[in-house]
Write a structure and sequence with these properties.
There is one protein chain. The protein is of the alpha+beta class. The chain has 23 helices and 13 strands. A hairpin with a 2-residue loop joins strand 1 and strand 2 (about 40). The longest helix is centred in the first third of the chain and has 60 residues, at about 60-120. The radius of gyration is 28 Å and the shape is elongated. The two termini are about 50 Å apart. The mean pLDDT is about 85.
Length: about 550
């Protein structure tokens, strides 16, 4: 292997790529190995990196830091893009409870840190490093060091203690969070896959999914009214897509200007409760199913891929008037929605269109309906979004007499920006949508780079610190800082608040700002469900952990 050493000095960047690739490949192989159905998963890369680092495989420090930070940025940006469309709905429904649980995790972790440091006589400068590492939160480490430097008369040797504590605490922080998930899985006898399906079904239940109902007009007060004038259509969001005249056998597409007569049968689409209201006003449910009856009317699902249409509402698009077709329902991110006129369209929306074949074809052409475009990744918005996220993360926020400004960092900034951009959908010619396959690839690529770099860096001194004079004491303290808050809050969330296991794992990973734990939770449940809770609590967690680290330094590290 002498040539590897020669490569390091002659071509350091090539050497860095070689070592990082070897760490990732061996780590993924290690993570795929399972004992009684349990494996390390993506966290195997971290342990492979520690092993490589311990064996002396080092790379250019600048390349190592770039791989770590760039991997983290790419990962959190992809996570934000994935959860953005559902983030704000989750925040409204569960945000307060989840963030209060997160606050409890942070406060308990800080209290355990201070208590153990005083009990065992650990320097508080080292303890705050353990706090940052055991909670896998790099921004709080930087904030703690900055706070130490700002204190008058501070010994420079003490300023170097937080990174040492961080190096010990970080690997055990990642392992501790994963162990807590496995412990809860066994304790609650939870089936992660089944719980994830329940979680997704509950999320769908919070959205008024459309169904169809055939309604026969019996209310004589409606005789002679135009279809668009029927009571309740706008208020209840009911769509009339087909009509069958009394005494006729053929079904045709319903038009807003059609005059309604008693005995006509209407095919109405909307939420179940809204359709019941409409039926009570209009007449009675008919045994006839207009979808099955003969006529020139067809239906087709069309995917929105035209950038010229993204961002418009269905009312602005006016497909009914311009192409003589009706949009009866819409599918977005796996959820079916009622096609209300005020619904703003996003790239990748799947519209169910009702009309005659030629009319549907014209509407489909305007909407795009291109699988090639749907699966194409435009990297201009991706890197613009990442750049904007890094800028937001680097922006200093000053509060009161704090010794150093608070920053969201390279993890919090891109996450916040990607959530907002994915919610907006389009700005001018830029469409922020990212195809599912591209998102998954970027997410996995980022976390692999991040874990490989962290493992390599930790491995260089990991065993030296571990087997040092205070190594085992630091390890025990780091484990306690990680596990105690998670166990208490996890038990409360599951047993008292009756939270779904999928949501609990996302909460635990988010409260520790731990991307590997999130990846593990998603792999365990075979679902992206944990990312919703993770993204809900992540921004506040970053802020609270920075404040907590600085508070430990300011109030307990003096002297």
């Amino acid at each position: 292997m002498e040539w590897v050493g020669q490569l390091q000095s002659a071509q350091p960047i090539t050497h860095a790529v070689l070592i990082l690739s070897a760490v990732i490949a061996s780590g993924l192989a290690l993570g795929s190995a399972k004992v009684r159905g349990i494996g390390l998963g993506i966290a195997g890369i971290l342990f492979a990196g520690i092993g490589f680092g311990h064996l002396g495989f080092t790379i250019l420090p600048e390349a190592l830091e770039f791989a770590r930070d760039f991997g983290l940025v790419v990962f959190v940006y992809a996570v934000g893009m994935q959860v953005g469309p559902s983030f704000f709905a989750s925040l409204r429904q569960n945000g307060l409870t989840l963030n209060l649980l997160t606050l409890a995790v942070v406060v308990m972790g800080a209290a355990v840190t201070v208590g153990l440091a005083r009990l065992f006589g650990i320097d508080m400068a080292a303890a705050v490093g353990l706090f940052s590492g055991a909670t896998t939160n790099t921004p709080s480490l930087g904030a703690a060091q900055e706070a130490l430097r700002s204190m008058p008369g501070m010994d420079p040797a003490r300023v170097s203690l937080p990174p040492m504590g961080y190096a010990i605490g970080y690997p055990f922080g990642i392992v501790g969070i994963i162990l807590s998930m496995l412990l809860f899985r066994a304790l609650f006898r939870a089936d992660p896959v089944a719980e994830a399906k329940e979680f997704e079904q509950a999320a769908r239940g919070q959205v008024k999914s459309p169904v169809r109902m055939n309604v026969r007009v019996e209310n004589e007060n409606l005789e002679g009214l135009k279809l668009e004038a029927l009571p309740g259509l706008r208020e209840w969001g009911v769509i009339i897509s087909r009509i069958k005249r009394a005494g006729e056998a053929e079904v045709r597409r319903a038009h807003p200007s059609d005059v309604v007569h008693v005995g006509d049968t209407l095919l109405a689409v909307g939420a179940r409760g809204d359709l019941e209201q409409f039926r009570l006003v209009t007449g009675a449910e008919s045994a006839e199913d207009l979808v099955e009856l003969p006529g020139p009317v067809q239906r087709q699902r069309v995917v929105l891929t035209s950038k010229n249409v993204v961002g418009k509402t269905l009312a602005q698009l006016a497909l009914d008037r311009r192409h003589s077709v009706t949009v009866s329902r819409l599918t977005r991110a796996g959820l079916e929605l009622v096609a209300r006129p005020d619904l703003r369209l996003q790239f990748g929306d799947m519209l169910q269109i009702v009309g005659q074949r030629d009319d549907i074809d014209r509407a489909a052409k305007e909407l795009g309906n291109s699988l090639k475009e749907l699966n194409h990744t435009d990297f201009i918005p991706v890197f613009l979004g990442i750049a904007l996220g890094v800028m937001v993360g680097a922006f200093p926020l000053s509060f009161g007499n704090m010794p150093a400004p608070v920053r969201l960092g390279i993890a919090g900034g891109p996450l916040l920006v990607s959530i907002i951009l994915s919610r907006i959908g389009k700005i001018g010619p830029l469409v922020w949508h990212m195809p599912v396959n591209a998102n998954a690839a970027l997410r996995d690529f980022g976390i692999c780079l991040f874990l490989a770099a962290v493992g390599l860096k930790s491995g260089q001194r990991f065993f030296e610190l571990l087997f040092g004079a205070e190594g085992w004491l630091w390890v025990v303290c780091a484990a306690a800082i990680t596990l105690l808050p998670l166990l208490v809050v996890g038990l409360a969330a599951r047993l008292i608040l009756k939270r779904n296991f999928t949501e609990v794992t996302g909460l635990l990973a988010g409260s520790m700002t731990d991307p590997p734990a999130l990846a593990f939770a998603c792999a365990m449940s075979n679902s992206d469900g944990p990312t919703v809770a993770y993204a809900t609590v992540y921004p506040l967690t970053v802020f609270l952990r920075i404040l907590a680290a600085q508070g430990i330094v300011l109030f307990f590290a003096g002297g």
